[in-house]
Design brief:
By secondary structure, the protein is of the alpha/beta class. It is 39% helix and 14% strand. It contains 16 helices and 16 strands. Strands 9-10-12-11-13-14-15-16 form an eight-stranded mixed β-sheet, sandwiched between helices. A two-stranded antiparallel sheet has the order 1-2. The N and C termini lie far apart (89 Å). This is AB hydrolase-1 domain-containing protein. One of its GO terms (molecular function) is catalytic activity. InterPro entries: AB_hydrolase_1, AB_hydrolase_fold, Epox_hydrolase-like.
Length: 491
C-alpha cells in the first residue's frame, strides 16, 4: 500500500489511511470493520465539517482501496463495494439493504397479488349474490344459432346443420369440483349449450376461480350465510336458475360439485330437471337397502295400553311396576340430555380449536407450501396420462393463485366443509340417495385415481333408475380429457 501521510484538522492530527476517531465518526469504523475486515483504508481525500461533526466523503473515495482490501482477504466471500454499500446524496456511505426474496407458489409470484376482477377474461361475467361477486360464464345456444343463420343468409347459404331439436330447452348449470374453476368446463360449455338447445352456465364457487374472496371475522360470526359453506353454493345454484328465468335446470356436477348438485335437488326438487354426476365425490352406501317401513315397532308403553281396567288400581304389584317404569324413563331422559349437552360442549370446543388453527398464520404458510409442492402435480395426476397435460391447463388451474387472499379463502372453505354447519339436523346424503326421483346419469373414467370407478357404479346402483357410463382411457376429468366422448355420453 502507499505510504501513509498525515493531515491536521483543527487541533487534531489525522493519519490518512487510518480510521476516523471520535468525535468524528464511530459508526463508520464499525461499518468498515464488519464489511471489509481491514484496519487500514487509504483515502484519496477527506473533508471535515467541524460544526456538524460529520465526515463528508467524496464519491468513489473508498472504492479502489476497499475492493483491494477485500481481495487481500483471500476471497473470504465478501462482495464488492457496489454490491455491499450505497452512497447517499450527502456523501455518506451505508450498507445496502438486502432485497426481499420473492415468494412464489406453483410458479405464481405472491408479491404481486391482485383483485380477481383484474384477472377476468373477455367473456367473464360477474353477478352479486349475498355480497359475493360470483364469476361465471354463459354459453347461449340461441345467440350462436342467430349469428350462424345471419352469416349463412349473408353468404346465400341455407343449411339444416344448426337446426337441432330444441325440445329440451332447459338450461344447465355446471358445478366444478375442489380446486377447479370455470376453466375446467371450457371445452364442453358451448357443446352442452348446443346439445340442450338452451343456455349453459358455469360459475366459480366461493374460494375458487375469480369469485371474490370474503374475509371472515376472527369470531367466525357473520350477519349472512357463510359464503364458503355448501349451503351458500346451493343457494347460489338455485339463484342462477332464477337469473336464467327458468322454472327448472339440469345440474351437472363434477367431483365435489356433485355434493352441491345432489343437495340442491333435496333443497328444491321441483327445480331440478335432471342430475348428471361426473366422477362424483360422494361416498356410496356399502349396503343398498330398500325403503321399508314395515318393521316399525308400535309403542305400547311396555305392554300397558290406555284401556286400563279397574284391575290395575286394585293390583298393588302393577302400580309398583308402573312407578318403577316412570322412574326409569325419567332417569334415562336425564342421562340422554346430559350426554347430548356434553356432546354439544365438546363439539363447540372442537369447532373453536379448529377455527383457531385454520385461521392462524401457520396454516396460511402450510397451505402455500402444499400448493407449491403438490398443486401442479395434483392436476397432472388427475389425468389418465400425466405427461399429456398441456401447459395452458396448468396455467388455467394456477391462475387463481394470483388473487388476493386466495389462501385464507381456501382455508375458510376447508373449515366450512369440515364443520358442515349447513346440513345440521339432516340425515347423511348417502341415506337419502334412494329418494331421488329425477333422471340421473353417473359418468366416470375407467382409470380415475381420485374417485374410484367402483364407487361411482355403486352410487348409480343406489339411486333408483340412474344410468351409469364409463369412458375408457380416462382419469378424473372426463370433460377435459375426452370432451367429445363426454358430450356424446350425455346425448
Amino acid at each position: 500500500m502507499a505510504a501513509i501521510t498525515a493531515q491536521k484538522f483543527g487541533s487534531t492530527m489525522h493519519k490518512l489511511g487510518s480510521f476516523p476517531i471520535p468525535p468524528f465518526s464511530v459508526r463508520k469504523r464499525s461499518i468498515y470493520r464488519s464489511i471489509y475486515g481491514i484496519k487500514l483504508v487509504q483515502i484519496k481525500s477527506i473533508y471535515s465539517n467541524m460544526e456538524k461533526r460529520k465526515w463528508v466523503v467524496p464519491k468513489n473515495s473508498y472504492r479502489t482501496v476497499c475492493n483491494a482490501g477485500a481481495a487481500e482477504l483471500g476471497g473470504s466471500g465478501i462482495g464488492s463495494f457496489e454490491e455491499l454499500t450505497e452512497q447517499r446524496l450527502d456523501g455518506e456511505i451505508r450498507p445496502k439493504k438486502k432485497k426481499k426474496k420473492k415468494v412464489s407458489v406453483a410458479g405464481v409470484d405472491q408479491d404481486e397479488l391482485v383483485d380477481p376482477l383484474n384477472l377476468a377474461d373477455p367473456d367473464s361475467l360477474f353477478v352479486e349474490f349475498n355480497g359475493v361477486h360470483l364469476h361465471h360464464k354463459v354459453a347461449d345456444f340461441s345467440s350462436e344459432i342467430s349469428a350462424a343463420s345471419a352469416s349463412d343468409l349473408d353468404n346465400g347459404v341455407t343449411t339444416k346443420e344448426n337446426s337441432i331439436s330444441t325440445s329440451i330447452g332447459i338450461p344447465a348449470i355446471l358445478l366444478h369440483g375442489f380446486g377447479a374453476t370455470v376453466f375446467s368446463w371450457e371445452r364442453v360449455l358451448k357443446p352442452l349449450a348446443k346439445l340442450i338447445g338452451s343456455k349453459a352456465v358455469a360459475f366459480d364457487r366461493p374460494a375458487f376461480g375469480l369469485t371474490s374472496r370474503i374475509e371472515i371475522p376472527a369470531t367466525g360470526k357473520l350477519s349472512t350465510m357463510n359464503p364458503y359453506s355448501i349451503g351458500f353454493s346451493i343457494a347460489a345454484t338455485l339463484n342462477f336458475i332464477d337469473l336464467l328465468q327458468s322454472q327448472k335446470a339440469i345440474l351437472i356436477g363434477h367431483s365435489a360439485g356433485c355434493l352441491v348438485a345432489a343437495n340442491a335437488y333435496f333443497e328444491a326438487p321441483e327445480r331440478v330437471a335432471a342430475l348428471i354426476l361426473v366422477a362424483p365425490a360422494i361416498v356410496a352406501p356399502l349396503v343398498i337397502g330398500k325403503n321399508d317401513n314395515t318393521n316399525r315397532i308400535p309403542s305400547k308403553r311396555n305392554g300397558l295400553d290406555d284401556n286400563s281396567t279397574s284391575e290395575e288400581g286394585e293390583n298393588p304389584f302393577r302400580k309398583i311396576r308402573v312407578m318403577l317404569f316412570k322412574l326409569w324413563t325419567g332417569v334415562s331422559r336425564l342421562v340422554v340430555n346430559m350426554v347430548q349437552e356434553m356432546k354439544a360442549m365438546a363439539n363447540t370446543l372442537y369447532r373453536k380449536i379448529l377455527s383457531v388453527i385454520l385461521r392462524s398464520n401457520f396454516a396460511v404458510m402450510l397451505v402455500r407450501l402444499i400448493m407449491d409442492k403438490y398443486g401442479r402435480e395434483a392436476v397432472r395426476n388427475a389425468w389418465y396420462d400425466s405427461k399429456q397435460v398441456p401447459d395452458h391447463v396448468i396455467h388455467g388451474y394456477t391462475k387463481p393463485l394470483k388473487c388476493k387472499g386466495w389462501e385464507k379463502a381456501l382455508l375458510e372453505f376447508t373449515l366450512a366443509m369440515i364443520l358442515d354447519s349447513g346440513s345440521e339436523g339432516k340425515p347423511p346424503l348417502k341415506k337419502r340417495l334412494k329418494d331421488i326421483s329425477c333422471p340421473v346419469l353417473v359418468v366416470t373414467g375407467d382409470t380415475d385415481r381420485l374417485v374410484p370407478a367402483w364407487n361411482a357404479e355403486r352410487l348409480a346402483n343406489s339411486i333408483p333408475g340412474a344410468k351409469f357410463e364409463v369412458i375408457k382411457n380416462c382419469g378424473h376429468l372426463p370433460h377435459e380429457e375426452k370432451p367429445e366422448e363426454f358430450v356424446a355420453v350425455i346425448q
